[in-house]
Amino acid sequence: MRRAPDVPASQTRRNVTGAAVTTLGLIAGLWAQELVDLFAFGGRLDSLGIRPRDADTFWHVLTAPFLHGGLGHLVANTVPLAVLAFLSAVRNLWRFLGATLLIVVLGGGLVWLFARGGSLHLGASLLVFGYLGYLLGVGWWERTPAAIGVSVLTFLLYGGLLWGVLPGSPWVSWEAHLFGFLAGLVSAALLHGRPARR
Predict the structure, then answer these.
(1) Does the pTM of the predicted model rise above 0.90?
(2) Cβ-based neighbour number of residue 141 at 10 Å
(3) Cβ distance 58 to 50 under 8 Å?
(4) String of b and e for 76-114 (b: at least 16 CB within 10 Å)?
(5) Distance CA 145, CA 4 (A)
(6) pLDDT in tens, 84-143
(7) Cβ atoms of 181 and 111 closer than 8 Å
């Protein structure tokens, strides 16, 4: 196990502040988008979700995680997304942004390739499961006390979500859960993989 480097208190405060502001911005943006969609577009922006293997809409992998099928859908995702995004961002904001991009593109791309045909996939659950996989993966790859502690906390809080990667309700995109989680693990490996020992 590697020893985590000492972090000055001022740097810790900056990290916490940056993670909090980023998380609040993400949540506020999702709510603003959904309210605008409902009241100005009548929900028509939901058509920008992922339609598996529809070549004309592949770029929807970039929009689908930020859309929701109504306020109930968004409410269900808000708290776990806020908690997991904050935990992912608090140590290093740039790695968090890199992980987010990888989760959106890789996870969404896999949904587009392999999800059920004739279906529409949207919602921040791709990010929720992506950050869950990312945080668990960081603990495995880094193996520092801080990373392991955060991984254990994450598992205690949201480990039960892992059942969501299995097929269930036809109205729930278990594919987004599964591929988001896998993309989070890949992000952790790429961004936090241990250097070779000398």
Answers:
(1) yes
(2) 17
(3) no
(4) ebbebbbbbbbbbbbbbbebbeebbebbbebbbebbbee
(5) 7
(6) 999 999 989 999 999 999 999 999 999 999 999 999 999 999 999 999 999 999 999 999
(7) no
